[in-house]
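Case study.
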Amino acid sequence: MTGTEIARDRKAAVSARALSKTFGQGEFAVTALDSVELDIFENEFFTLLGPSGCGKTTLLRLIAGFELPTHGSIALQGQDITDKPPHRRPINTVFQNYALFPHMTVAENIGFGLRMLGKPAAEIRQTTERMLALVQLEAMAGRRMDQLSGGQQQRVALARALAPAPKVLLLDEPLAALDLKLRKNMQLELKSLQAETGITFVFVTHDQEEALTMSDRIAVMKSGKILQTGTPRDIYDRPTHRFVADFIGDINILEGTLEHTDGDLARVRLKDGTRVSAHLGTASARSGEVSVAIRPENVRLAGAAEAPTLTGVLETIVYFGAATNLHLRLGTGEEIVVRNPGAVDEGRYQPGATIGAVLQPELIRVLE
Amino acid sequence: MSDREAQTALAAAIAQNRRNERLTRAWLLAPALTLILAISILPLAITVVYSFLTPGTYGGVTWEFSTDSYVQFLFQRDIFDDSLVFNSAYVSIFLRSIGLALGATLGALILGFPTAYFIATKPREQRNIWLFLITLPFWTNLLIRTYAMLLIIRDEGLINIMLMKAGIISSPLTILYTDTAVFIGLIYSFLPFMVLPIYASLEKLDFSLVEAGYDLYANRLKVLFHVIVPLAKPGIVAGCILVFIPGLGAYITPELLGGGKKLMIGNMIAMQFGASRNWPFGSAAALILMALVILVLLANALAARKGASRNG
Ligand SMILES: Nc1ncnc2c1ncn2[C@@H]1O[C@H](COP(=O)(O)OP(=O)(O)OP(=O)(O)O)[C@@H](O)[C@H]1O
Ligand SMILES: [Mg+2]
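After joint prediction, the assembly is written out as follows.
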């Protein structure tokens, strides 16, 4: 199924068209976003993933309405909201530093949005109680912000943003300040909160593992552009760009020449002369120099009677419990990592030994 | 040396050391203490003593104990039967002064808050220029500045000329020598005391809280009153105190712009040491003013304590 087919199937909660944002002018101009096209669907846990400075926060701030785009438009459920101020957008934000009001109690913080909307007191009280229960902070309703731990503040921020039942919830690295254990807990909680409330979540992170475990779909960003949008499997198994492949998980990248294409399949001659077949995906190349990629877990050690795809000299063995990584140096000077489930026979696999590896042909991809 | 002896020796040494330290501390504190005594406590003590003496005929005091000065503040002695009759003259001067000072405080707040906000939201490198401009008037004597203000608001002054040229009024407004003039003068004199503390608290304000306000459906006005003002409250309170207190005791402004016709406490006190030659009563009035100021500060401290305990 291609992107446009998905789009036809599902209603878009947030869409961005040709969205650009430039800060500063003249020689100091910084293009934080560059012609971004984006559709985030209803009820989706959508993640913006990318390295520091790639424009994730800027995109979120444009959706929230804190910044105006230099070009392009943003729509919420099909309605243009490009020029609407933040307080007229049914979108709430969980800020990276939480931005909780220090002069209010937990309950007052959570009820703030509803109060500003002019809801009746009884409704505010009811919703606040429901939210307190949702984030398990019933006992803390009367506390001030400086009497809460980091994790509790995080929950208040979440409850405060969820209380007015927004159409879309924006979360800018909300877990960055938490320690690892709390972070893992909150990841699960966030995920189940999203499922429970049915609100569209747009989540920002630069942690690829977090993105893979939590998201329905991920957009990988680099220097103000979205390189690839897709499900975690799409992104992991079928990366379209070298950057995406490199950024998420470990990957082997080999150079070669595209000799022949047949539909989605391509025949690539690697530098050492080996021919492999690889999937083209969205790659546009039909000839010439290309890079192909394969995950280490899709490369295995050649059996005794098996013809290896590639052979190389074993350089290092890294054992980490569930698997062992064997780093091979190929004749072409390129390195390839083989991930072997469990430990390997240390007598046979010694650094310096020449070893054969088999690439699973159906999992080799041509990169853009 | 046995352990015991060593311990005793050590204890003695420590005690000696402490004594030395105490002595050093006393010497180090001496200059500051002397200064405080000389410039703060002593004049105050003299004022207290004088307020309980009898006025001398040509000014000064005669050393005769009397509480008349305090009685005089509220009552008038009947010339015929020596009975006390309530006299509202001084109380009303106090009330007028409090009213004017409160009004000036409110005016300075209304002008000062937006000014402070304006400066606090400028880029950091520009803020110092604006702050410099705010403090610029302090480089000139208040007396001179008040005379300048007099030139601006008098009948043929800048304001009237401009309003008449613009055709808004046909005959000059009489501002000078009215309460309005005193009011304008007080705001003008003490505005920087309002702007600076508010700026200090706004400058520390985390702007993401303002964004959180907008994000949670508050419009500009609601963000101002639900987020910005509460967070700037310490600065606002400090500014109000810093304007109200000197405003209450102002002397030059009401003297020049009020024409000395409408007295404020400051002028009334000054008069007792001049034309009225009633030093004890002047002293008593000054102390009553001070008591008033202390009450205001006390109320503020109490409110702050209550706020703090609410915050835990
Ligand atoms: N207000 C601003 N003025 C000027 N440049 C800005 C501004 N905000 C962001 N930028 C620039 O835009 C680019 C994108 O910034 P952005 O904050 O969106 O990155 P990010 O992906 O959120 O990074 P991080 O993971 O570090 O938070 C950066 O180069 C940044 O320096
Ligand atoms: Mg960011």
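Observations recorded in class. The mean pLDDT of chain B is 89. The first strand of chain B starts at residue 54 and ends at 55. We will return to this complex in the next lecture.
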